[in-house]
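Possible regression after last week's pipeline update?

I re-ran a chain I had predicted before the update to compare outputs. Posting the input and the new output here so someone can diff against the archived version. Not blocking, just want to make sure nothing changed silently.
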Amino acid sequence: MSPEPGPTDPPDGELPAVAPQLRALRMRSGLTLEAAAARAGLSPAHLSRLETGRRTPSLPMLLALARTYETTVSDLLGEVPQTADPIVRADRMEAQRAGGWTYWRAGGSGRAMQALRLHVPHGPGGQGDLVRVHPGEEWLYVTGGRLRLVLGGTAHVLAPGDAAHFDSLTPHRISAASPGGADLLFMHTLMQSGAAGLCLGDAGPNRRGHA
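New output (post-update):
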């Protein structure tokens, strides 16, 4: 029996664009479902649900899968690769949804650093409950609403204009602290390394919770 619909379940009849792209990238990488799942720190069943659209991946899961397939989040979202133009026009920043969050690509493809614009909705559950731990650095800048950022054992509430820059091996968690959600600019380095430790909690290895 399939799991009850949750925050990361797609609406009935709607197949997320990321699902077929995940399968295509895995096949292109020559990895079996089991091998790819092991590299990303997932169970094969969980990865299968992502590939068939029965689950939509959260931001940390997108990062883990991007590292697994040595690609970018933009490629996972099925965006057409752009030429090496340093300018990303607003009309080309198409919104993509994953795990309840909304993403807009704000940087070039194939770079050593990924830049995104995010909207984090308010409310319990979903990605706001995930603790992330992975190699690299992250930088974020709040443009609207209030953001709750937990670094290690310390919680911070960031208002518009506030920024944070931290080593992402520090356990961290992001959620909206205002009723209308939070908007932010987000950048992270793309480290070509294992990602099994990307998340702590329900999305970690041998767990069967939401991505």
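Follow-up from reviewer: compared with the archived run. Residues 1-15, 191-211 have pLDDT under 50 and may be disordered. Marking as no regression found.
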